[in-house]
Every structure is written in C-alpha cells, then in structure tokens.
Amino acid sequence: MTGFLLSGDEDERGDTLQRTLIGAAAMAAAAGVALYFGRKRSETAGEPLLSDAPASTLRGSRKPDPALIGRTVTINRNAQELYDFWRKFENLSQFMDNVRAVETLDNSRSRWTIAAPAGTEIEFVSRITEDQPGRVIAWESEEGATIRNAGRVEFIDAAPGRGTMVRATITYDPPAGTVGRAIAKVLQREPNVQARRDLRRFKQLMETGEVTSSASPSGRRSEEPTKQYL
Amino acid sequence: MRALTWHGRHDVRVDTVPDPEIVHPRDVIIKITSTAICGSDLHLFDGYIPTMRAGDILGHENMGEVVEVGAKSPLKKGQRVVIPFTVSCGSCYFCGKQQFSACDNSNPATTSDMSETLYGYPMGGALGYAHLTGGYAGGQAEYLRVPYSDVGPVVIPDGMPDDQVLFLSDILPTGWMAAENAEIEPGDTVAVWGCGPVGLFAIQSAFLMGAHRVIAIDHFPRRLELAKGLGAEILHFREVNVREALFEMTGGIGPDACIDCVGMEAHGLGIDNILDTVKAHTFLGTDRPAAFRQAILSCRKGGRVSVPGVYGGMMDKFPIGAFMEKGLTMKTGQTHVQKYTAELLRMIEEGKIDTTFLVSHHASLEDGPDMYRHWHDHQDTYTKIILKPGLEKGAVQTQQEKIHEPA
C-alpha cells in the first residue's frame, strides 16, 4: 500500500495474499520481541533505578507495590493556600466524590464516611502520619478499618508563576480482594479513576471557585437539567 | 422548551425537553434569538464524532437575550449576547495564555477521561458537541444555560442585527484564527481548501492580513462564486488537477500558506479518499483527510499549513516526508474564540468585515431537522442556515439576495 498516494494506479489486488503473509510474519516477530523484552525486564528487576520519576509510574515488577496509585495535577494557586484547604479535612467532601463527610476528632485523627457500593456507607478513623505545613500531608487508616488505606499529598512549587504541582499517592487494600476491586471498577469507584477525577475537581474548585458541571437539559426523560449524569 | 436533539446517524428531531436552570452562581440563561447550523454539526449528523448520546441537544453558534442571571454573573437581564462555542473558565493557565479552547477546567471531571485517553490530555469544554467536550447542551433550542458567563459572552450594542454578529460565536473567529495561523506576509499567495463558511471567512481574513492572492478550492459552484466575490481566484477540483494548477498559478513556487477548511469528511476523487471512506465506514479508520494531504503536498518549501478543519482520530498516510523535507510549519486547533471577539466585533462595526453575504436561509427551530438534511444534501445552495426559535413552523426564508461587494 505504501506509495499509492504518489504512484496512483498500481494494481493492488495481485499481491493481497503476499501482503497478508508478510503481515502475519511481522506480527509473529513483534510477539517474539515483546516476549524477549518481557523476560529481560524481569531479569533486571533488582537493579538500581535511573529514572527521576515518581514510583507510581514505574513499570511491572519495578513498582514497589501494585496497589500504589499516584496522580499529579498542576493548580494555579500557591502551595500554602492549597495545603490549608486540604488540611481542613472537612473540605475534602466538596471535591472527593465518594467521601460523604470527614469529621475532625483531634489534631491528628479524623473520622471518614465513605460511600460504598449498593448505597451503603463505611466509616474509618484516619491518623496523620506526616504534616509539613505548605508541603506534605500523609495519613493512614487506624487498625480495624474496612478498607485499609494510606495516602500522601505533596504540594510542590511549579515553575515560577505556574502555581503548584499537587501529587497524591494512595495505597489501599480493596474490600474483599480482587472481587471487591472488580465491583468497584464497575461502579467507577476504582481508586485510580477516583483519584484522577477527585484531583480534577480539586483543581476546578481552587481555580474557578466551582466544581465544573455540564448539567443541562436533554431529550432523555430520566434526566434532570441540574444534575451531571456522565 | 422545544429543542433540536440528536438521536443517531442522520436522525435529529425537535423534542420537548425541560428548561435549563442556573447551576452555578456564574451561570446565566439566555433566550435564543438566533442559532446557526455549523459545518461541524454535519460531523455529528453523520456520526463521525464519538461520545454522542441519544437525546443530546445540538447547536454551538448561539446568541440571545439574557433572561436569568446567577448571583456572581456580571451580565444583566435584557442584554443581547453572543456566546462563544468554547466553554472557558478564565482562570486556568491556558485561559491566562488566551488559549481558551484548551481550558483545563471546563470539561467536567468525569467526561474529561475520554479525551485524556484519546489525546493524552483532557480537552476543554464546548457547547452542544458530544460528551468528549463535556456534554453541554447546545443552543438549537429556546433557552440555553451559559456557564462562566463572566468569561465568554459578548454583549452586543443596540442596533446591530443578529445576522451581523451571530458568527462571532464560532465561524468568524475560526476563519480569522485560520488566517492568523497561516502567518501571512505581504505578497503571499494563500490557498484555501473548502469554501464553506469557515473557508469564506478565512479568505476575507487573509486579504485583511495582507495576502496578495488567495486561491480557493471547492466543488460547489455557488460556494466558489461566493469566494470569487471576496476577490479569490477559484479552482473547481473536479475540473482541474489542483496540485498542477497551484504549481502553474504560482509560477512553480507553490502557495506560501495552505489552509485546510475541510476537515475529516473531505470529498474528493483520489484513490486515497475512496479508501479512507471505506475505512471510515468499516471502522478501520476515523478521518478522511484528502484535502489535508493535498495541502501538505501543494505547499511551497518552508511554507505554512493551517488546519481549522476538524479532525478527531487517526490518520492514515500522513505525508510526513513532504512535511519534513520541505520544512513546513503547521498550526491548528479549536478556536480560542474569546481571544478574538472584541477585535472582530469592532471590525464588523467599522464595516471592515462582511458577515452576512454567506447566509442563505433562515428557518424556524421546528424546521431544524429538514434544514439538517438540506445542509447535508444541498451544500451548493444551502451555504449557511440560521434557525430562529421565534419563527413559526414552515417559515423558511431564502436569502442570499445580498452579494458581497469587495471594498
């Protein structure tokens, strides 16, 4: 097919079979290459890392924990302002979709109410493990939480005049293991999807003062014009 | 209210739907007085744009009267406003750089996943243009919710008729930005593929920016005639070999800048376009870029290629060799409408830009579905359609008695 644009009228039907065979051979070769590099990667798993990237972007077996989720968003506000908003955990339900409420218990502990599948709610108590004003907040669930989880949010200055990079890192033990994760995925509550969308809403709220909504009328009878459906 | 809704490929209807409501304090609701059908609405009509849902309200070239105002909107009831099709927050990094169509906040958190997957980063929001760009209802309806009303709407001075200013919503700034992206220098010859509304405004803009010659390419006689009326030389691509003609007409140099105002559904006779059509219909490819390829191959060495035409997915046979070896520059993108509206409104007021010569039909909203069929099937005579919810069903007014007179 290559070159037909320039050569125009070359007869293409004659070599269809030949091209199919070439295609099949190319795919077999590609599969072999993938297998080779796949093996090679697992052999080099223990070697020191060269990349200056967050751990959540590491590939395959180099990732320290398969349940590690990381996402960074740049927000056109200064780090202290963003930290202050986040540190007041009551605010989190304004942009975290599945967080119903957070209640501060004391300087380091807070009670979280989370929406769970099938209209249920779960509660756990979270404890701050690291707190650097304007820079880092880290937390983890206390013993006995239904979903054991730990999170860390860093506020990193972007280039001058470009605001702050907010990097959230979350590790979690999904409810009921793999099955629970599958259920969560169906309900679009899979944690990395959730983290991505929550951080987008955080950015919208901090930059524009509102969580963006395209709520509008449609010809779909089941929908109301004031709600976001997708 | 009544609204024109999309139900599938070549199936649009006028339905009764709920009225829009204020959702955020910066919103306003407008009562639509004029709403045009855009060439890019045909991509929705033809089913070329993914993420449409049955029941979506179309329409992104809108204007009307403010009838309801959110607590934090600077607008006032009764003001006449033109609404940019791009939804832009005004406070993110991109809006700060006047790259309004790249707004980082206007696509809701849930719908922006799709474009992040397709394009690497989430797209900004747009009115009436599928869920890829946010799923906002369009304005081919009696009323429209306008988010971020402190950023987009252009307040229209009294005495300027709708037809004169409506196209500030999309096609006029789109044609203008297409010419700006072509980086025209005095003495330049500019070739424009497609004499639809965007092509016609690109031709006008290119002359205003100092182009010496504009050569316009299409296959609809009426549209070529409109281009000629603007002072362009014209090529009917079924009559002539376009690349040869451009070579000869420019003395073997080639056009200094090429503007593709056609986009993903090019007509054309080339074997490449026939194959692209087959691929698009069998889901092996998404775009039919015949005009785009021709623009790259026709452009002079070191020239500029500007692409306002809409593309959505993957292209086969991108002539990367011609692009690299000739050292071309390409600029493209959805229009940063808010960047241009004030300047263009002033130019309309001063009589420097003619915005009404291309309008061929006014019709009621109720006649919208018929108008979509005409817009699709009779592109020669239907050169621009404006829907007016205020008109009675059946009240179709054929215009175009007004012909552009070169200044």
Tertiary shape of chain B: globular
User: Helix content range of the residues of chain B, please?
Assistant: 25-40%
Based on helices, strands and strand pairing, what is the structural class of chain A? alpha+beta
- Rg from Cα of chain A: 24 Å
Characterize the biggest β-sheet of chain B: 8 strands, mixed
Shape assignment of chain A = globular
Mean pLDDT of chain B: 94
Major sheet details of chain A? 7 strands, antiparallel
Straight-line N-to-C gap of chain A: 41 Å
Written account of the structure:
The complex is a heterodimer of chains A (230) and B (407). Chain A has 230 residues and is an alpha+beta fold. Chain A has five helices and seven strands, in the order ααβαββββββαα. Chain A has helices at 4-7, 16-43, 79-87, 177-186, 191-208; strands spanning 69-75, 99-104, 109-115, 121-132, 136-141, 149-157, 164-172. Chain A has a seven-stranded antiparallel beta sheet with strand order 1-7-6-5-4-3-2, with helices on one face. In chain A, strand 3 (109-115) and strand 4 (121-132) form a beta hairpin. Chain B is of the alpha/beta class and 407 residues long. Chain B contains 13 helices and 19 strands. The mean pLDDT of chain B is 94. At the A-B interface, helix 5 of A face strand 1 and strand 4 of B.
Break the fold down into its secondary structure elements and pairings:
The complex is a heterodimer of chains A (230) and B (407).
Chain A lengths: L3 H4 L8 H28 L25 E7 L3 H9 L11 E6 L4 E7 L5 E12 L3 E6 L7 E9 L6 E9 L4 H10 L4 H18 L22
Antiparallel strand pairs in A: 1-7, 2-3, 3-4, 4-5, 5-6, 6-7
Chain B lengths: L1 E7 L2 E6 L11 E10 L1 H7 L10 E2 L3 E9 L10 E4 L2 E2 L5 H4 L15 H8 L5 E2 L16 E4 L7 E2 L6 H4 L5 H11 L7 E5 L3 H12 L4 E6 L2 H9 L3 E4 L5 H8 L7 E4 L10 H11 L8 H9 L5 E4 L12 H6 L3 E4 L4 H13 L11 E4 L3 H10 L7 E4 L8 E2 L9
Parallel strand pairs in B: 11-12, 11-14, 12-13, 14-15, 15-16, 17-18
Antiparallel strand pairs in B: 1-2, 1-4, 3-5, 3-9, 3-18, 5-6, 6-10, 7-8, 17-19
